[in-house]
Write a structure and sequence with these properties.
By secondary structure, this protein is of the alpha+beta class. It has one domain (3-357): HIT family, subunit A (2-Layer Sandwich). The chain is built from seven helices and 15 strands. It has helices at 121-138, 176-192, 196-207, 248-269, 297-300, 316-321, 330-343; strands spanning 3-6, 13-16, 54-56, 70-74, 89-91, 94-96, 102-107, 146-153, 165-171, 211-214, 218-221, 232-236, 274-279, 304-309, 324-326. Helix 1 crosses helix 4. The model has no long low-confidence stretch (mean pLDDT 90). The structure holds zinc ion (2 copies). One zinc ion (ZN) binds at residues 39, 41-42, 112, 163. Residues 39, 41-42, 112, 163 line the site of one zinc ion (ZN).
Length: 358
């Protein structure tokens, strides 16, 4: 029997329809291949990108030269540009503004074939630190109200370059999907004086059947109303709305959890295309003329990461309803991942606990 489940935060329904006779791992995806000529993101090809915005250069090499570990460049074909003014206006009932924003590419490694799932966590940590630095810098610009940080891996996830990279888009409005989450979290806090994300986490930790991995700072779990097979969420254990406030110690432990989540998707799904999204808070600078806009975030919002493997297709039903159909129960996905991790326990650091071991 299939089950309809409602996401407790955003009121979104999913249909968990585990198909009889199909195992969780029957969605194996082939290694994504993206044909390309000279790669503009490879070390040595720095001149093929626009001038860099920031780079981690431990040896002190010059900008736009080799010798970097992480490099941030503007997108060559940006959807939005930072120059100019918003020029908000109306045309009859229609609202519009100029395409102001920022679109940056974070080149995660000089090596074309590096995969985040390969680690080591120290390299993932450098990428996370870059997200923090870029977010602080972009939010200095009052016009940029929201930054979405994401990674598209593989063709099915929309990646057009195979060199390891993530992207940040800073936009002049808070998008509807983000607003939905923020409003839901605020309403919940107003009713209960508790953070809904903290409550979801507490519930998952008490039930345990969807927990995948946890350490001192972070918990990864398969959400109750997962939209996709092997969808995962990573929450900070301590309440925090501010991704940039994460300490280096906590960030290192996040790098470990994120790396392992991506690594263990492989035994489950082959080499799936996936998106991950770092859900951060909107720009904390009070908005001109709206001093109370999103002013309660420190109490009611809780930043988090979503990992969304793309092994099923979004089709008419999803577009028509906003529902999703997920053929793998999140409990089965979590159980599978815990088992793979337990078999691979030699890689488990003593600080990390795999839920099934308890
Ligand atoms: Zn490359
Ligand atoms: Zn919280």
């Amino acid at each position: 029997m299939s089950e309809l489940r409602k996401d407790p935060i955003v009121d979104r329904w999913v249909i968990i329809a585990a198909e009889r006779g199909r195992r969780p791992t029957d969605f194996e995806a082939p290694e994504p291949t993206i044909p390309e000529a000279a790669c503009p993101l490879c070390e040595g090809n720095e001149r093929m990108t626009p001038p860099e915005i920031w780079a981690l250069r431990p040896g002190g090499s010059m900008a736009d030269e080799p010798g970097w570990q992480v490099r941030v460049v503007p997108n060559k074909f940006p959807a939005l540009r930072v120059e100019g003014r918003l020029n908000r206006r109306g045309e009859g009932i229609f609202d519009l503004m100029d395409g102001i924003g920022a679109h940056e590419v974070i080149v995660e490694s000089p090596r074309h074939t590096w995969r985040m799932a390969d680690g080591p966590p120290e390299m993932v940590d450098r990428v996370l630190e870059t997200y923090q630095l870029r977010l602080v810098d972009l939010y200095r610009d009052q016009r940029l109200r929201y930054c979405v940080i994401f990674r598209n891996y593989g063709t099915e996830a929309g990646a057009s370059l195979s060199h390891p990279h993530s992207q940040i888009m800073a936009i002049p409005v808070v998008p509807r999907r983000v607003k939905g989450k923020l409003n839901a979290a605020r309403d919940y806090f107003e009713r209960k004086e508790r953070c809904i994300f903290c409550d979801v986490l507490a519930q998952e930790l008490s039930m345990r059947d969807r927990i995948v991995i946890e350490n001192e700072h972070f918990v990864a779990f398969a959400p109750f109303a997962s939209r996709f097979p092997f969808e995962l969420a990573i929450y900070p254990r301590q309440h925090s709305h501010d991704f940039t406030a994460m300490s280096p110690e906590a960030r290192a432990s996040l790098a470990g959890v994120l790396h392992r989540c991506l690594a263990y998707l492989r035994p489950a799904l082959g080499s799936p295309s996936y998106n991950y999204i770092v859900n951060v808070a909107p720009n904390p600078t009070p908005r001109p003329g709206k001093p109370y806009y999103w002013s309660t975030l420190q109490f009611d919002y809780h930043w988090h990461i979503e990992i969304l493997p793309q092994v099923t297709r979004i089709a008419g039903f999803e577009w028509g309803t906003g529902f999703y159909i997920n053929p793998v129960a999140p409990e089965d996905a979590a159980d599978f991942l815990r088992n793979v991790m337990a078999q691979d326990a030699r890689h488990t650091s003593s600080a990390e606990v795999i839920s099934g071991d308890q």
